[in-house]
Design goal:
Helices cover 16% and strands 37% of the residues. The protein has helices at residues 2-31, 203-207, 257-265, and strands at 43-45, 58-61, 69-72, 78-79, 94-96, 99-101, 104-108, 111-116, 121-130, 139-146, 149-158, 164-169, 175-181, 191-201, 211-215, 223-226, 237-240, 250-252, 268-270.
Length: 272
């Protein structure tokens, strides 16, 4: 009789345990939003040819450029559309707090999009936030990195957070990374928009200005001259009649905003 009771108690315990596991599994499954019940749908893209993007003078939209690589937490990164669902091209018009955007990138946390800029651009601008298609749900953090250094962190943003506008100096930077994290929880409804994402570039800054020049004053047509052909620190710089002499010849090298400054002065005359 005692053995029967012992077996009974053991089997009851096993059944209760199994029932608990099934209940827990069902509860977890019920808590998973419908689009995500099929499990993760990660996506990645890396073009076969990795090279600096080809940009034109002025504004260049990121959705028109080829990224070096891109990863996304759910479905593909969409160009000029919201993330939508798992399929490529299933997004909607990019919308942040009622404002629509015709250009931009639709991502889903966790996401990382990398561009090789080749030092050709001076600023990155965008409006960021959760797409209106998820309502008040979701939570993400937008981050911008250039050459491995973090230049921007939005803090946690949800579907209720006001749109944030970015205007970041990237002069001379080579590698631009746009990152969206899951803000420490799950990635449900983390539809993150890099709306109106664009670069302002001066490709001629690097490709045509670097070289050897004379610097000519517009008002006098005289050249920038090192007094007395001196090589000592603290020597005076003056304007003087232009000759082909070493103390009037200057090397212009790509170095951030310095090149742009010279370009805007429009006082360069290339030697030879």
């Amino acid at each position: 009789m005692r053995r029967f009771r012992l077996h009974y108690v053991v089997w009851v315990g096993v059944l209760c345990f199994l029932a608990g596991v099934l209940t827990a599994c069902n509860t977890v499954q019920k808590n998973v939003p419908e689009p995500y019940k099929g499990g993760p749908q990660p996506w990645a893209d890396q073009p076969l040819t990795a090279s600096a993007v080809t940009v034109r003078e002025g504004v260049n939209y990121l959705s028109d450029l080829t990224w070096e690589s891109a990863t996304n937490g759910w479905g593909s990164v969409e160009r000029d559309r919201s993330n939508g669902e798992a399929a490529s091209g299933d997004g909607r018009t990019l919308t942040l707090n009622g404002q629509t955007f015709s250009k931009g990138l639709g991502a889903h946390a966790a996401s990382r999009i990398v561009y090789d800029l080749g030092g050709q651009c001076r600023s990155f601008k965008a409006s960021v936030g959760m797409d209106d298609e998820v309502g008040s749900r979701g939570s993400v953090v937008f981050q911008v990195f250039a050459d491995g250094n973090q230049l921007y962190d939005s803090g946690t943003m949800t579907g209720d957070t006001a749109t944030k506008t970015l205007d970041i100096n990237i002069t001379g930077k080579t590698r631009l990374e746009l990152v969206v994290t899951i803000a420490g929880d799950n990635n449900y409804y983390d539809h993150a928009n890099w709306a109106d994402a664009r670069l302002e570039c001066s490709p001629s800054t690097v490709t045509s200005l670097a070289g050897t020049y004379q610097i000519v004053a517009q008002h006098s047509s005289k050249c920038l001259d090192v007094s007395g052909v001196s090589q000592r620190n603290g020597t005076n710089i003056q304007q003087f009649t232009c000759y082909t002499v070493n103390n009037q010849i200057w090397d212009v090298k790509p170095f951030g905003e310095l090149i742009e400054t010279f370009e805007n002065l429009s006082i360069l005359r290339k030697n030879g």
